[in-house]
Predict the structure.
Amino acid sequence: MTIDAWLTAATADAERRGLPELKPILETLGRATAALRAADFNDRANADSPGASGSPSGLGARG
Amino acid sequence: MMLTIEEFGRRLRAREVTSAQVTDECLKRIDADNGRLNAFIRVTADEARRQAEEADREITAGRDRGPLHGVPISIKDLLDVRGTPTTAASRVRDGHIAARDATSIAHLRQAGAVFVGKTNLHEFAFGTTNEDSAFGVARNPHDLSRSPGGSSGGSAASVAAGMALATIGTDTGGSIRIPAAACGIVGLKPSFGEVSIDGVVPLSRTFDHVGPLTQTVADASLVYHALLGDEHVTSPVPLPLHGVRLAIPRGYFFDVLDDEVRARFEEAVGRLRAAGVHLDEIEIHHTADIAPVYLHIVLADAAAYHATTLETMPERYTPNVRVRLEMGRYVLAEDYVRALAGRDVLRREVDAALAQHDALMLPTLPIPAPTIGAATVPVGTKTEPVRNVMLRLTQPFNVTGHPAISLPSGQTKGGLPCAIQLVGCRMQTDALLKVALACEPQIAAGPLPRSGKVGG
């Protein structure tokens, strides 16, 4: 689910539940989610497999 | 200045003072000042006097339970004490009575501690200011218009104002260290998993810690070991200052910092260096990921715990805490898993930063205690949300699980405490305490007034 689609759905659900005050903090959460998804520790199915220790791709040299 | 636990113990065993006398003094201060500070939700005066008299009888009879014998202690109202309500500062828990002690509290009881009462907090520990509590706002003993920090704000205020010799708090994003810093006392978040969280109302089982707030590092060590249930506890021995190696993580940890907090930090650096401490400046990577990682885990954990009561009794939450808990119900599973991966990365980054050093050294709280009711606060040329800025320097070590201790380090021109945080290697809280004990005289620029403006 894209963040835009998630935010649209979450905002609509919050309004349906009588919680319109959630909208601005859902937008804040959306920005945090975008940052999380952009982090370089995320594994991707078309990249090298994660190491046996679970170390995310790209950080193996850090020890 | 109020007795420390160490000094109380010496005088108790020298028959110069009794537990009943010191407990009574704490209860008198509660009676005199709690109306203004609102530090306590429940004062257990009768039970405390009974415990103190029993402690004195045991000393007379030659039974000594150790360093906490007869010590008056307050407890955050998030931990179960048998026979009393655990409110979590929320109407959601109306009618609750704890059937048994939390494991950590049972250890304190076995160690002979005297429980003077349950302290105020940010509702369900989900906030940094103590403003959202079903029992009203708690206030800072150094300035009644200021927050004592949170979520263990009532706890910190109780020690800073001389209402207890120590207190027990919890720390999920900084809730021991933030109020300790705001109130000018010591706060220890042990390494993750060391002190039992059994019998503690959770915020996030992934990040929750139990630990002490005290007047000194030595006292923190004594209470920490009592919380663990250690039977043979002695005062810690400091490391020699020559040979202590500290790392200062520049960048993220100094990017958003009040000028006076920065000045007190740099002054302490100068004193430590002059005393022979080796200080290096280092960089920790992935710091930009700290807040997103923390947020996705703590929100999801909290929402899972509160899901039923959010549906059945939403009106019993304070509005701000309710909204924050509801936000967690929208965290997607895939993002929670990403955050768990990020936690592992950050843990390794901090491990690597500590590989050549005894501890990291950084400020605890980027700002002095904020004014009650403020949503934002000026920091340098920027305006920052109070909650974000208060969590900024403490939440990284809830994510990574490293032990961290906050020490008072002077004051602003307006008399508000500043504080410095030392962070040690995982599962080596004792080693961190030895470093903190060695550095404490140089970090503390001098004693803070204990009761501030409470007494007028």
Q: What stands out?
A: The longest strand of chain B covers residues 404-411.
